[in-house]
């Protein structure tokens, strides 16, 4: 496994685990997924307080705690969506300093950790009081309640403000070889955590079925027919779509945040990730040259 170092000197595995879709109702399966990830070399696990209204944190944290004697483990979580865990509903978007400073205590308790390795703002708008949000993160960092902080966003105006006015260590954003908008946000000083690399299964062996089921109206500026054409182009290369998708993200020097719902799915993705190493820089550059560069049109200023 390769790792990337953040500005706060935290090591994050280049292939990491997104925990949102873990089968929390099946503790054995969830534990099998976490164990398999750890054995492969994954050291970063991404969750959020909003996922299953706190249950994701409360499940993942204690399960990983049992492995900390043997593995280097880092857990990232997110904040900003105020919710009612009893009613299981979101109340409002709340990036206020007071809320963040209370929410971090709740997340720490659910995770069972004395501090949070990476605390990320779970969204954000240009209308937020971003200076107040930044001040809250900086205070939590000074008090050693968190080690690093970052944001999860696709909004250029928000991302630009945090890059210029804060010490964010990470940016989580959508990014895949057919969804290239995230390239605009790449920064040598900030580690990019790329989510959606397989595009809901579109960049997998099940692409024909997924294309019909999920993308009849197209997506991301592509019509259905254009998507079909792009997939045909990618399948002409002597590699699985999964391997191409993973190699693209690795070539872009970002962290691949892979979300799974079963141990079998993770095992297959690990195999494809390992296979992706056989794709040379020249070949992935050639593949990328056949795909248009996209930009988000909204939230730019």
Extended strand count: 12
What is the rounded distance between the termini? 38 Å
Mean pLDDT: 97
Strand order of the largest sheet: 3-4-5-8-9-10-11-12
CATH fold annotation of the domain at 3-198 and 251-261 = TIM Barrel
The CATH architecture category of the domain at 3-198 and 251-261 equals: Alpha-Beta Barrel
Query: Helix coverage percent of residues?
Result: 25-40%
Number of helices: 10
Q: What does the main sheet amount to?
A: 8 strands, parallel, barrel
Tertiary shape: globular
Segments where pLDDT lies below 50 for 5+ residues? none
The CATH superfamily of the domain at 3-198 and 251-261 is identified as: NADP-dependent oxidoreductase domain
Alpha-carbon Rg, integer? 19 Å
**Beta-strand percentage range:** 15-25%
* Helix/sheet category: alpha/beta
The CATH class designation of the domain at 3-198 and 251-261 is Alpha Beta
Spell out the helices and strands N to C.
EEEHEHEEEHEHEHEEHHHEHH
Domain NADP-dependent oxidoreductase: 18-289
Protein name: General stress protein 69
Pfam families: Aldo_ket_red
Organism: Phocicoccus pinnipedialis
Any chance you could write out the topology, listing elements then pairs?
Blueprint: E1 3-5, E2 11-13, E3 15-18, H1 27-40, E4 44-46, H2 55-65, E5 74-79, E6 81-84, E7 89-93, H3 97-111, E8 116-121, H4 130-142, E9 146-152, H5 156-165, E10 170-174, E11 191-195, H6 207-214, H7 224-235, H8 241-251, E12 255-259, H9 263-275, H10 281-289
Parallel strand pairs: 3-4, 3-12, 4-5, 5-8, 8-9, 9-10, 10-11, 11-12
Antiparallel strand pairs: 1-2, 6-7
Helix pairs in contact: 1-2, 1-9, 2-3, 3-4, 8-9
């Amino acid at each position: 496994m390769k790792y990337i170092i953040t500005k706060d000197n935290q090591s994050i595995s280049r292939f990491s685990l997104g925990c949102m879709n873990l089968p929390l109702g099946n503790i054995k399966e969830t534990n099998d997924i976490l164990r398999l990830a750890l054995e492969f070399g994954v050291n970063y696990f991404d969750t959020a307080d909003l996922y299953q209204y706190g249950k994701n944190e409360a499940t993942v944290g204690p399960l990983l705690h049992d492995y900390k004697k043997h593995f280097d483990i880092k857990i990232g979580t997110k904040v900003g969506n105020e919710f009612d865990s009893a009613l299981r509903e979101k109340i409002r978007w709340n990036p206020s300093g007071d809320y963040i400073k209370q929410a971090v205590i709740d997340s720490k308790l659910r995770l069972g950790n004395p501090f949070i390795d990476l605390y990320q703002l779970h969204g954000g708008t240009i209308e937020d009081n971003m200076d107040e949000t930044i001040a809250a993160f900086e205070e939590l960092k000074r008090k050693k309640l968190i080690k690093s902080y970052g944001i999860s966003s696709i909004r250029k105006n928000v991302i630009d403000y945090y890059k210029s006015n804060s010490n964010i260590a990470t940016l989580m954003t959508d990014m895949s070889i057919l969804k290239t908008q995230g390239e605009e946000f790449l920064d040598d000083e900030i580690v990019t955590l790329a989510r959606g690399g397989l595009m809901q299964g579109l960049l997998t062996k099940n692409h024909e079925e997924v294309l019909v089921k999920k993308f009849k109206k197209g997506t991301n500026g592509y019509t259905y027919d254009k998507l079909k054409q792009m997939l045909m182009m990618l399948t002409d290369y002597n590699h699985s779509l999964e391997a191409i998708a993973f190699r693209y993200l690795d070539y872009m020097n970002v962290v691949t945040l892979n979300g799974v719902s079963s141990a079998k799915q993770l095992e297959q993705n690990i195999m494809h990730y390992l296979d992706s190493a056989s794709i040379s820089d020249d070949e992935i550059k050639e593949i990328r040259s056949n795909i248009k560069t996209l930009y988000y049109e909204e939230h730019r200023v």
